[in-house]
Write a structure and sequence with these properties.
19 helices; binds magnesium ion; binds 6-O-phosphono-beta-D-fructofuranose; alpha/beta
């Protein structure tokens, strides 16, 4: 595997990476600054002036970061006060060695690394304050997104309770549908949609069959077989993506797997700190369960209460998930985590960032065999992803024909709209 495609970088003209750095990241960080002003303006905050000093410190650092990304400056080191920041400084040095001084900038470094760096920096701005060390800059957006999805959550809850009552329901049909729902729940990413994708989500789960052709590689049937027969007595891992509705669909899938005794536990892997706007932190995990338990709808309350008290539901947050490393490096960077995942019944990876880390965010020819794109990552993976970045591997002739007929050879917009999806399984 010496021949490896080039990493995606922002400097590539007309690329989605370029558009993201030029337009979307400034929009994301500006939204954070506005939110900070709105919720804790020094003049009105009830925490006294020192809170205002923290706010001003974070705003000043975000503004400088926005200036540096817009003018393609070199990345700055971390203060290095925490273990996470020390690890990030090691990675920065590795990237400086690899890229050289001239390319050690926002647009010229691998886009995957730079986007992870941005969120690690936003976290550092909080941890280096006096009173806002655990502040979640995206809490307001995640909370709003959850309430925007309430109708969908309530409708799904009724369906889930109905399936439970009907004990001779076809298990394979239910598991297939839960995986489809879990896949499309991934459209709820706030770093792409910035919160305005929710109208697409409504009634989507009632029209799953209509969305089936948008799944370009669909290993769901093989995955159902694997989950029904190969996970007994082993742990089923879910590397979570977004909070809110997507997390609800993860819980629904996990409950079925435990309820039908298809695996021993479900290990939910969240993030150590706020990440890519909508990714699940421990705070989000607990907040969503409490919100479900206190919902006005009976069925939602039942599910929330049960999920909150299930001993087989185990939440973890390893530092690895908030690094800039791809999954090719997981064995070197966290051997314990690698061994845990290697011995899993299955590791379900959710979303676009996970996918990018699986395939090294390379500009693969889209028919590159998925197994080849996984390179040294030898854990048993099943990835459910709506496409939001310009990297994909493992497409069949047919799938290529589908997109080429509609978009032509050079137009990659189909890869970043989250309208298309892949469900790809690789059991080493
Ligand atoms: O481009 C949009 C983006 O920020 C990608 O860079 C990133 O991989 C994706 O959104 C995150 O989406 P998800 O929440 O599905 O991982
Ligand atoms: Mg996400």
């Amino acid at each position: 595997s010496s021949v490896v495609a080039e990493p995606l970088i922002g400097a590539t003209p007309n690329s989605f990476a370029y558009k993201t750095i030029k337009e979307r990241w400034p929009k994301i960080v500006t939204k954070v600054i506005d939110e900070l002003h709105r919720s804790y303006h020094p003049a009105v905050n009830t925490h006294g002036q020192e809170y205002g000093d923290d706010i001003n410190s974070i705003i000043a650092k975000i503004s400088e970061t926005r200036y540096r990304m817009e003018t393609n400056k070199p990345l700055l080191d971390f203060e290095g006060k925490t273990e996470d920041e020390k690890q990030w400084n090691i990675h920065l040095n590795e990237m400086l060695e690899m890229a050289g001084e001239a390319n050690f900038t926002w647009y010229n470094l691998p886009w995957l690394f730079v986007e992870c760096y941005l969120y690690a920096k936003l976290h550092e701005f909080c941890t280096s304050t006096k009173h806002m060390k655990d502040y979640d800059l995206f809490k307001v957006e995640k909370t709003k997104a959850f309430f925007d999805s309430k109708a969908q959550i309530q409708a799904l809850s009724v369906e889930l309770i109905d399936w439970e009552k009907d004990r001779n329901v076809d298990e394979k049909m239910v598991l297939t549908r839960l995986l489809q729902i879990d896949l499309w729940g991934n459209k709820c990413d706030l770093s792409l949609s910035c919160g305005d994708a929710h109208e697409q989500i409504h009634d989507m789960f009632q029209k799953l069959d209509q969305f089936a052709p948008m799944i370009l590689v669909n290993d769901i049937e093989i995955a159902v077989e694997h989950i029904m027969t190969k996970c007994k007595g082993k742990d089923f891992h879910i590397v979570l993506d977004n909070a809110g509705l997507e997390l609800f669909t993860d819980f629904a899938l996990a409950e079925f797997i435990i309820d039908r005794k298809l695996a021993k536990n479900v290990i939910f892997h969240g993030k150590d700190y706020p990440w890519f706007v909508s990714d699940v932190t421990e705070g989000d995990y607990k907040w969503v369960l409490n919100s479900l338990e206190n919902d006005e709808k009976e069925q939602v309350k039942i599910l929330g209460k049960r999920w909150k008290n299930r001993p087989e539901f185990i939440f973890k947050h390893e530092p690895f998930w908030t690094t800039g490393y791809s999954f090719w490096d997981i064995k070197d960077k966290n051997e314990k985590l690698f061994n845990e995942l290697k011995s899993a019944g299955l590791v379900l990876l959710k979303g676009d960032l996970c996918y990018r880390k699986l395939v090294g965010d390379r500009s693969w020819p889209i028919q590159t065999p998925f197994k080849f794109a996984l390179q040294t990552c030898t854990i048993p993976v099943f990835v459910l992803r709506t496409l939001k970045a310009e990297t994909v591997a493992g497409l069949s002739e047919n799938a290529v024909k589908t997109v080429r007929e509609k978009y032509g050879a050079d137009d990659l917009t189909w890869m970043v709209t989250s309208d298309y999806a892949v469900a790809q399984l690789n059991i080493p």
